Amino acid sequence: MKFKNLRIFGGREKPVTPDFSRLPQHIAIIMDGNGRWATARALPRTAGHRAGSENFRRIATLCNDIGLKYLTVYAFSTENWSRPKNEVDAIMSLFKEYLIEACGELTKKNITLKIIGDTAPLSEDIRELIRETDRLSLGNTGLHVNVCLNYGGRAEIVRAAQTLAQKVRNGELNPEQISAADFSACLDTAGIPDPDLIIRPSGELRISNFLLWQSAYAEYYFTSVLWPDFDQEELFRAIADYQGRSRRYGGIEKR
After folding, report:
1. Residue 175 falls within a domain, yes or no?
2. 216 is in which domain, residue-wise?
3. What is the pLDDT, as a whole number, of residue 4?
């Protein structure tokens, strides 16, 4: 895949302040680099995941404070189950901690939390906490936080295709009339606007099966900063860079 306007930042540059009146509506982040952050400090990889989890809380709070509408983060992919069991268990334990904390904070901070992905393989206590956060999120009008857990873009597209196929089989839908909107309505992100800006820390230059359908016209921002070190300065730089781009959606630039 060829990325236009690809930007890689190797270190700290002059701080920038974005125009907060022109924020993207939806930012998505691939939270990558926790393991390498820990290894560089001679710490176990699980320590990196805890640092990354704590940073997620900081960045989500910051996004809420500046008035962002939607934040989606890639927390655990369908492929991550292949990691060592102790690492997977640590990630799930951290996620459970976050959900317990969220149950006490959602109403206070007016934040909506949605879990995106296949939750069937998760433990029952985590699924119960997800149901509770869904309940507590009702009516909240602040930042919408979407956490992709046991998520994969290809698996999501397959599930959407299966849903549409079943509707055709039931006589509810004519296959010749299936539209992009119909397909989007069957995705895990139904009702959520597509991301405007996708950020990948850690220096990797790939999208790793993340929001494949939804990212068709997203702007990408890549940085070598590892996720636990991704702070306000890095977020503001990414937003300011986004604001300097011309989004043409396949057309030509307006003059």
Report:
1. no
2. 20-151+194-243
3. 38
Per the structure, the count of domains in the chain is: 1
Residues 6+ apart with CB under 8 A from 198: 27, 28, 29, 30, 207, 210, 211, 215, 218, 219, 220, 221
DSSP 3-state of 123: coil
> Does residue 205 form part of some domain?
yes
- Using CA atoms, how far apart are residues 191 and 167, in angstroms rounded to an integer? 19
Q: Which residues are catalytic?
A: 32, 80
CB 32 within 8 A of CB 198: no
- 242, 196 in Cβ contact below 8 A? yes
Q: Can you give the CATH number for the domain in which 134 is found?
A: 3.40.1180.10
Using one digit for the tens of pLDDT, what is the confidence trace for 192-211?
999 999 999 999 999 999 99
Which residues contact residue 163 at a Cβ distance below 8 angstroms, ignoring those fewer than 6 apart?
186
